[in-house]
Design a protein that fits this description.
CATH topology: tt1808, chain A
Mean pLDDT: 93
Shape: globular
Strand content: 25-35%
Radius of gyration: 17 Å
Number of domains: 1
Distance between the termini: 57 Å
Number of strands: 13
Helix content: 10-25%
């Protein structure tokens, strides 16, 4: 006879919408993950990155957003996955029609790593974003001053690595967009 197994609670977007707004959560395949407050360095790197990206996109059809901004990756199916990437870009305006966030995969996502969330971002979110069709996913490490750019090709991510000395890191899915990483990491 098989031993009894504990089944963790599974949640949906409807559950997520009813949670206290004073706490931030992500929901991945029905499993809830509490989000910690970001550090000063996390916010500094995120802000510097976003400024460059937003400046590049000014007047173009794509739009950049920063956390907190909900992304429902499987709203058309189980609707049990809601993430809040640090930075994201959406080029298909129809994905923004509900006025609350993004429905579907953004074209570009950036996660700034923190010691408490690095494994989550590098493993769980990597797999989730790849499976969901996020065309490009960058992980930015403020402590090591490195960046991994994962570009989706044939359903799998191909990865390129950059460091603070690489002043020109191109965003493949945004033609002509280059992020100056030395400016992102300056003074850290």
């Amino acid at each position: 006879m098989e031993a009894a197994r504990k089944i963790d609670p599974r949640y949906t977007y409807a559950d997520y919408c009813g949670w206290d707004d004073s706490e931030r959560w992500e929901l991945i395949d029905g499993v809830a993950y509490a989000l910690a407050s970001p550090s000063r360095w996390h916010q500094t790197v995120s802000k510097r990155f976003f400024r460059q990206l937003d400046s590049f996109l000014d007047g173009k059809h794509c739009e950049a957003f920063y956390a907190p901004f909900s992304v429902r990756l499987n709203a058309d199916a189980d609707d049990n996955t809601v993430v809040e990437p640090d930075i994201l870009v959406v080029c298909d305006e129809s994905k923004l029609n509900d006025g609350k966030g993004v429905i579907g995969a953004p074209d570009f996502i950036v996660e700034v790593l923190s010691p408490s969330t690095a494994a989550h971002d590098l493993v769980i979110k990597f797999r989730l974003y790849q499976r969901s069709g996020v065309r490009e996913y960058w992980t930015v490490d403020p402590e090591r001053k490195t960046t991994a750019a994962h570009v989706l090709q044939n359903g799998k991510y191909n990865t390129r690595f950059f460091n603070e000395l690489d002043s020109d890191a191109p965003v493949e899915v945004l033609e002509g967009c280059v992020i100056n990483l030395s400016k992102v990491f300056e003074g850290l």
